[in-house]
Model the fold of this input.
Amino acid sequence: MAKEINAEFIRALKYGQVTSLNGRVSGAAIDSRKAGVGTLFFALKGEKADGHAFVRESIDKGAALCVVSTEWADQNPTENLPLWIVDSPETALHKLATAWRNRFDIPVLGITGTNGKTTTRSMCSEILKRKFAVHSTAGNFNNQLGLPLTLLELNDRFEFSILEMGTNHFGEIAALCKIACPTAGLITNIGHGHVEYFGDLAGVQKAKAELFQSLPKTGVAFINSDDTLIREIPCSASQFTYGFESGRTDIRGKILTYNFDGYPEIEVNERIKIQMYIPGNTAAINALAACAVGIYFGVPEEEIVNALENYQPVDQRFKIIRHGGFSIINDTYNANPDSTIAALKTLLLMKTNGRRIFVFGNMLELGEFTETGHSIVGKTAADLKIDKFYATGEFTQSAITAARNAGLSDVTYFDTKSELLSDLKKSVSANDIVLVKGSRGSRMEEIIKGLTE
Done:
């Protein structure tokens, strides 16, 4: 009999009270705009809105059940409404997702890391789909709300689950693992992301280590052997290693060459050759991690090659846009010093008769490392001899100063994105490559939009 979330299943959690259930549950939402027939709507209090204001709207749309707080239920008429009344709707979401996940005896791979989480997760999904029916994180649903909502989408047809796990505070990965119960884990890398909250690289290592430390002894940790901080993490699960530079690894990679566009051709275990169609060293590293996962779980080698050779980058993650005779690299999803330097090095791999132009916005959540991190990026841009360097955002002034001090002459700071865009549109010409990079909060995608309009 197919598994389903019903009143009996919810009552077995022994949390709160179910007044009635309107039909069959077929999905969960925390946004009333996504509520529909059968939806389980969680009325959460956010920074801008309180989900309780949309309970009746969700019921009118056919929601099977609305999860509301006891406080709201005490202050509003609830007679004949399909409600699950609890102390905390968010806690109810976590409890339900945990219980639902535990009904499925399938491999669950948790993926975290400073950079490359989404790309590696997406590559793993494309590979594992060649053998399994794969359930996976959608978009950026990798936090305390997104992950449990993702788990509630599990059903009997799935044979494998891949869950991305993001964090910017200690304990968050451990909490996600308590909900997801991963049987396998992969940490892409450890770098200067969210150091405002973690303090330094040792703090980042400690936060990411929560994934490996949550794995059962019967599970497996995929170890990036090229990352010293990952190798040092204690783990009671079995280990499956991969790397380009380390000596002995289970999966050994080699970059054979880069083509005109900077796309790497990689060799795996001296026998598998894969021509990637996304540029840079980072793409090769992410692909090798995905290879390790695919090989470990028995995906045929030819299927791994086919999946990666047909792989296309996720939006806003080093996505190349050809426009007006020049190229734009949209890498605006997020930024920290490590990912930005990697992007600059990739830009250098891409051959062109035009100029390489770097457009830089603030990198956020760096705390005391903010000035140093931006300065390192500016010096790197100069060392790599980037042709033209634009920047906007107060923190990037450190990068501008560092670039000039290191000898880069064509460097310009703008107070606003609109001023930058106006100058860039006048300057950019045929065969130029424009790399746009900045943290999510800097909204550097506005530059992309302005260039392509």
About this structure: The chain has three domains: 7-95, 104-309, 319-452. The chain is about 35% helix and 20% strand.
